[in-house]
Amino acid sequence: MLSSEYYRYSRHISFASAISLRQRKKIFNLFMEEFKPDSNTKVLDVGVTCGSDFRESNFFEELYPYPENVTCVGTEDGSYLERAGKCGKFIRVRPGERLPFGDKEFSLVFSNAVLEHVGNAERRERFISEICRVGGKYFISVPYRWFPVEHHTGIPLLHYLPGAVYRKLLKTLGVDYWSKEENLDFFDIKKINRLFEKYGSHKIKGVYLCGVRTNLAVYGPAAKSG
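The structure assignment produced for this chain is given below.
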């Protein structure tokens, strides 16, 4: 089994995998309820990983009922998904580069827990712009900024501190990868609205655990910037 960089610390927080899977199923159900894709819908999943040792890894491909109509892209080698029949095609891409598809080639573009990892403001803008270019509609979900336990490290409350302080403390704790802003950023409703307002109308919904918001999903028609 291959291990993804994005699950580097999950082994140290054994309860996290079960909780993550439960919440990701809620995200998937929201996607299905809002868009109601059928056997003719062409879907692009942006951000699959090489990880196959956690149940929540690439959950969309595990749950989606029409895998032959799903194209997957990722910066890690997710080719096992295509070999296993979990998607119609896998294409490996390089971070920050243009997606290798034509304008509006897909009816729907799905992306979970990727936006927070794409880098600086310029790369975030490019990421969203490319999703809106290749898709008719988009669905992007991210961890919620103010959930008490930080999703990637499993450390509670520390991420409530100012960014510079939080990242310095993470580095002191030996969590160097997630201490870098280019590897992990945070999103709340206000920040998501700022990012997506130029792309036309969009909806934001929360995903909850015991009444506490864990994730945000933003979705809508993929209008051009401006």
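Interim note for the steering committee: The two ends are 44 Å apart (CA to CA). The longest strand covers residues 212-221.
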